[in-house]
Amino acid sequence: YWFCWISLAMADLTAVGLYTQYWLPDVPQWLPGLIALIILLIMNLATVKLFGELEFWFALIKVIAILALIVIGLFMIFKGFSTHSGTAAFQNLWSHGGMFPNGLHGFLLSFQMVVFAFVGIELVGLTAGETKDPEKVIPKAINNIPVRVLLFYIGALLVIMSIYPWDVINPNESPFVQVFAAVGIIAAASIINFVVLTSAASASNSAVFSTSRMIYSLAKEHNAPGAMTKLTSRKVPSNALFFSAVVILIGITLNYIMPEQVFTLITSISTICFIFIWGITVICHLKYRRTRPDLAKTNKFKMPLYPFSNYVVLGFLAFILIVLALAQDTRVSLFVTP
Asked: Are the beta carbons of 163 and 179 closer than 8 angstroms?
């Protein structure tokens, strides 16, 4: 699980480099990621309180930006805005070759990036042990996830694709930025690029923070070197923090060696790692229900359609692994990750 979050940090620092190139195209992709990692390391060494404060503002910026995009996008659509392709907005969803213009192959290959977008979602369940009223809070949080996915993920994508046809989107730039640039709001495009940049930095910050704590916990349980339990005067596990940062540097090195392929490679590795974690979680749940039916009976928030749903989830995760084997750039990760 530590390595899952390490790979996630590598991917997000790669994104930091890509987003920075929107303003500074001549800057090498690896440099902004390296600078961001050093800044995050310094901030995490300073104080734990700063981490929580930063995450609050990072998250707020992100939520406001996505809501603004959806509202402005819907306004543009209903005002009859048409892109430079000459197609009316909503028609962009089906007029450029239909729903599957290149067949199912492209649709299936997109699953790798879609699954990557959901990594970390298991944190909702992991907070159960630290929640005052888990029987009330956890079901509410989990049931809210589909609503938030529909609004922030599906809603944003629907608006973007309605305004901007899929076949003219530049995969090397944020589609959020392209939407605003397409209507001539250059300043807004820069603001949105700043937002997605802070979002990537926020995810990297979470990864740096959480991986250092994981190493610290492992060391306390004698599953990692004892030196990793060392705390600073501010109660920060400095050795664990430095160790995680050094491993994350592998991602920066890959950005230097292979800038064109690195994002797909790292996100694929991250996807495979989390598929393993999620698979183990589902298997553990099956084991729990079989060995402790007494506890399961009293549980107020059961998994629907058990055990059928467990096998459906495991089947879906296996399907993603098959999809990863279909494309050459993700096939490398499939063989390298184990």
From this structure: yes
Query: For residue 81, what pLDDT band results from cuts at 50, 70 and 90?
Result: low
Q: Burial letters for 294-313: b for 16+ Cβ neighbours within 10 Å, e otherwise?
A: eeeeeeeeebeeeeeebeeb
User: Rounded CA gap, 60 and 232, in Å?
Assistant: 30
The pTM is what? 0.82
- The Cα–Cα gap between 90 and 102 comes to 20
CA-to-CA separations, 213 to 10, 41, 240, 270, in angstroms, rounded: 18, 13, 7, 19
In the three-class reduction of DSSP (H, G, I as helix; E, B as strand; rest coil), residue 102 is classed as: coil
Q: Report the C-alpha gap between 292 and 308 in whole angstroms.
A: 18
**Exposure class string for 64-74: b at 16+ Cβ within 10 A, else e:** ebbeebbebbb
Angle at CA of residue 211, ends 207 and 214, nearest 5°: 145
Where are the strands (E) in the chain, listed by range? none
DSSP single-letter state for residue 1: -
Q: In 3-state terms, the chain is what percent helix, strand and coil (to 5)?
A: 75, 0, 25
Instruction: Return the SS3 of 148.
Output: helix
pLDDT tens figures, 205-233: 888 988 998 999 999 999 999 999 998 88
- Which of these, 194, 277, 197, 200, lies nearest to 3 by C-alpha position? 277
Tokens at 125, concatenated: 């369940």
Cα angle: 291, vertex 292, 298; to 5 degrees: 155
Q: Which residue has the tokens 């079989």?
A: 290
Cβ neighbours of residue 285 under 8 Å, at least 6 residues apart?
A: 303, 310
Cα separation of 51 and 44, whole Å? 7
